[in-house]
User: Fold these one by one.
Assistant:
Number 1:
Amino acid sequence: EPEVTQTPSHQVTQMGQEVILRCVPISNHLYFYWYRQILGQKVEFLVSFYNNEISEKSEIFDDQFSVERPDGSNFTLKIRSTKLEDSAMYFCASSEASGLTDTQYFGPGTRLTVL
Amino acid sequence: AQSVSQHNHHVILSEAASLELGCNYSYGGTVNLFWYVQYPGQHLQLLLKYFSGDPLVKGIKGFEAEFIKSKFSFNLRKPSVQWSDTAEYFCAVNCSGGYNKLIFGAGTRLAVHP
């Protein structure tokens, strides 16, 4: 069964450094998402992406964040200057389409630790 | 704003006990409802979903959930749990006009003892 994959599984960085989290969505999917889960808190939506554009973003997704689909397979989340509060598990998801009936499939997550 | 509440944060059961996890959402329009499960060390997996039709939906591994529109609820049930059901369970909703943005509940951590 096709799966969403994410790399790395764990990233440790110093405050102020840039990080890029990578995701490979399921190959025939067209819609991509990033969510995050701070330890002990809810899974929160960050951004959705389609046709090389952001479809929707939450208030968490400020100017420090950006997303890109640099080639036909990868989908990346960049945090320009990490803060301590960016420490969280980041999940990538993809879906075939964006209708209400479309299921999002999640990757295993990248645990980001900002020191 | 749309939100999802899961009433039980931690549930401990013995094998063969019945399970019901509560989930309520706040949104007046059309919603689709999901339960995801996260086994220890693994990623979020879809357990079941409700889009329309029969409000009682059956998912994988013997789980089912009932959508009660008047109560804004989508509770997850399993008649007899197994040790392998130990996991965290997340209720999520997708609201009309939300570009498929999932709104999650806080999760319920289930521990099943042999």
Note: Chain A touches chain B at residues 4, 31, 33, 35, 41-45, 48, 55-56, 58, 91, 93, 95, 98-109 (CB under 8 Å).
Number 2:
Amino acid sequence: EAQVTQNPRYLITVTGKKLTVTCSQNMNHEYMSWYRQDPGLGLRQIYYSMNVEVTDKGDVPEGYKVSRKEKRNFPLILESPSPNQTSLYFCASTVRNVLASPLHFGNGTRLTVT
Amino acid sequence: AQSVTQLGSHVSVSEGALVLLRCNYSSSVPPYLFWYVQYPNQGLQLLLKYTSAATLVKGINGFEAEFKKSETSFHLTKPSAHMSDAAEYFCAVSEGNNDMRFGAGTRLTVKP
């Protein structure tokens, strides 16, 4: 089944403790992206990647890192999480770009930082 | 930079009634416009998209949207609401290959 898989679905952590949210897609998509969803703000793009070893900042990249060493994986890294990073995170992918074909989303990771 | 405004964070309709979810956009170039739907505990799914072909776009589940350049709008409609339409709906705009901006979302409630 074609899908975007995020793990974990729920994560509670403390300020400053490094964490990684994994994202994997099995559709051979070139484009991958991370969003955070907050009430009243919709989805805001954190980072995106047009292909392996190519990553770019979105609208809200501060406090996050990503890497794209393989086509299928696009992990989101929080080196020193803070409470303002408490949010619902989505990974998404598409064939080449957001115009050519729809974004496929994972089911989300709900992160709480205390 | 492009942006979208969704009017109304919550919309409530009765089953069988017309659904109208409003979206206005801002873009410096001819935009590409999208509506996505999010069901509880799931990621977003594409409902429909406008890419400068026909101004009336038909999507899945009986939804459609009309692109009106003069009003910079891309409102989503469905003639008759069903209970299964209850979800959050996001309008989005893109000017280029890698940049898509989402609205704040509208939560649709369908009353029996």
Note: The mean pLDDT of chain B is 92.
